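Troubleshooting log. The previous structure file for this entry was overwritten by mistake, so regenerating from the original sequence record. Sequence copied from the archived sheet and checked twice against the printout by T.R.
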Amino acid sequence: LNKNKKTIVISPETTWKNKHWTENEWRNLIEYYSDKANIIYTGTNNDNGLSERILSGYEDKIINLRGKTSLDDLRETFSYADLLVTPDSGTAHIAWAEGKCAIVTLFFATSGERTAPFGENYDFVQADCSCSPCMKRNCKLKNEKNVCINTINSKEIVKIINKHLQFE
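Regenerated output below.
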């Protein structure tokens, strides 16, 4: 880690497909912060190619801990981090329990009001569509599956991250 830079952990994976943010928006965050901060990527090896698609072309710009951490290792990672960005997942709660880094959580199918960690160093963003939160593991829409994941864009998240990390 470059000690002169802030450290951002991104952890895109969840067990529900309709809680995943778009790969392009994750890539936008990596691109935006790749020269401004240390970026650590966490997750499991059970994501069906999601991580490979997000990380393609950015391998030299991030520290990839995907599939390399136990829960204790993940907790320790958060002790060094300044901020975590993740969809609604256990990762947000582990970081919250560690108590050091700021947390930005994205909510699509689930409710930030209901399940988000709380505190001063925490923000959540709820998808802005009529069906969110549906609280369903699988999207029930026929024509626009998982439309909620397209209602949050990386520019909005950059503003929140910059506020927490006092960038710009």
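The chain has a mean pLDDT of 90. Archived copy saved in two places this time.
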